[in-house]
Structure formats: structure tokens, C-alpha cells
Amino acid sequence: MVISRYHKIDGLDWIAVPLVPYLYAVDDVSQVPLTVDKEQVEALRDAYRREHLLDLAPDKKGKAPKGEWTQLVGSSYDRTIHGFEVTSTQEQDERFIALFNDRNNVGHFNLLFHNCADFSAAVMDIYLPHAVHRNFIADVGLMTPKQVAHSLVKYGKQHPEMEMSAFVIPQVAGSMGRSHGVDGVKESLVKSKKYLLPLVVLSPEITGATVVAYLVFGRMSLPKDATIFEIGDAQVTDAPKVAAPRSGLDGPRPISTDGDAGERQTGGQQ
Question: Which one, of 184, 189, 182, lies nearest residue 208 by Cα?
Fold first, then answer.
């Protein structure tokens, strides 16, 4: 099960989606296409929406509505996803479910302090306390997908007893735009001529400090020996119910969490 936070989806703060639909917008691994184009992806997502997500994303004038509901299904058509795996105990899983059952599942998305990466950090803190932290130098205190990954890589090296491993879910082949690496806050400034050149003219001192902050604190590389995740080899036991109720978690314990801390067309790890 994938637990994720996206902005403005039926007023919910988080939503639980079975793994196969989350990745490929189909119910069964036998239905996963080998290659796709934009029209096929839209058709797959809309078919799944009509079957399972009408409560979250109802028709608008007889057609599929616009909005971020598309992020809930078919993520592997848009991006390559990098993940990390650790072993959890039954007690940790029960604590996670109990904590989420006690929360009101009402969205209050905030880009600065309550974004999707913050959600990933909050979930990981239940299993790995203090493993994920903000970078006030490279990201000016904002939590970003890259910082979540950076923290987990560092934590895994510091705690080999956790036996943390990395895996990659490749983007599905086809004519969809290829995903690329995500950048941190200051890294985005350094790599963008649109912002960097005017900043050099206006304030060369700040520009220099920004570049140094990126070079010293903002760069990272993901594990090179990450396992390729084969969905056909996974034992998927997700319940058919897609959207968790507003007040808690319905269905079996989650086997994956997501706060966009992977790779996507608008940013991610590569």
C-alpha cells in the first residue's frame, strides 16, 4: 500500500492507494503495458478513476476532471522512482496505524512546512526517529524530496544494523517525457541561468555563498547498486478499497510510503 499526500484531492491530507494501481493505473500486474504514450496513459488513468476513484475525482461535464488525482495512479508512467527499504516490526506497524487513526484526515497543505516531503519525513520518523531532518543551508529550511533521500542514505550508512537497501522502479518505456533528477532549493538556483545570472549581477556575494552551500551541502548521489524492483515478483496483497477514510487507515498495513520523494518530470532523484 502506498500512503501519499497531494494537494487538493477531496480535502484529504493523505490517501492510501494499492501499489499496482499507484504505479501503473491497473488492477493486476498482467495488465501493465510494456510501452505507453500520452493518450494511453490518460485512458488508463481515467478507466481506473471511473472504476475506483469517482468519490475523489468525480466527472466534470462528463469528462475526467483536472487536478492532482492523476498523481495517485500511474506514477511509473511519469517518472523513475527511487526507494529505500527497511525491516519494520509488528509493533512499529501497529503504532503507525494507531497514530494515523487518531488524526483527522483533513488537508492543510503548505509548501513551506506541510508539503509532500514533510509527510514522508513524518512517516519515517515513526519508524526511524530523527533519521530525516531539514537542511537549513542547502534548502533554506524547506523539506524537499532530495533532502529526504539524502537523510536516509546518511542514516543507512550510520546504522548498518538497519540493513537499509535501495531499489529503483524504472519509468515505463514510451513517448512520455523522460524524468530527470530533482534539485534542492539552492541547487535549483545554481543550475538555472534564468535565476543565477541576474543574481550574480544584483548580489555577487549572495551568489557566491549560494554556490558554496550547494557544493558543500547540497550534492548527493544515490546508491549505484540499487536493485531493480520487478512488480511481477512482488507479493501484492492490497485490499480493493483505494481511498482511506478521512479519520483513519483502512485495509492492510502499508508496505510502501510516498511523499513524492522519488523521481518525476518536475524533479526527483536520478
Answer: 189
Judge whether 23 and 169 are in contact, CB under 8 Å. Answer: yes
d(Cα 98, Cα 96) in Å, to the nearest integer?
A: 5
Strands (E) in 66-217, as ranges, are 81-85, 165-169, 173-174
pTM beyond 0.90, yes or no: no
Q: Record the cell numbers describing residue 6, joined without a space.
A: 497531494
pLDDT tens, position by position, 47-76? 999 999 999 999 998 899 998 999 999 999
- Residues 41 and 74 sit within 8 Å (Cβ to Cβ): yes
**Which residue, 30, 83, 68, 80, is CA-closest to 181?**
80
Q: How confident is the model at residue 41 (pLDDT cuts 50, 70, 90)?
A: very high
Side by side, the strands of the sheet bearing 256-257 are 15-17, 2-4, 256-257
Per-residue model confidence as pLDDT tens digits over 105-121: 888 887 777 888 889 89
Helix (H) or strand (E) holding 36: strand 35-36
- Contact yes or no for 120/148 (Cβ under 8 A): yes
Return the H-helix or E-strand segment holding 228.
strand 227-228
Q: How far is CA 139 from CA 117, 181, 199, 247, in A?
A: 13, 16, 17, 33
Q: Are 262 and 168 in contact (CB under 8 A)?
A: no
Distance CA 19, CA 73 (A): 9
Left (φ > 0), alpha (ψ -120 to 50) or beta: where does 67 sit?
A: left
> What does the DSSP 8-state code read for residue 251?
S
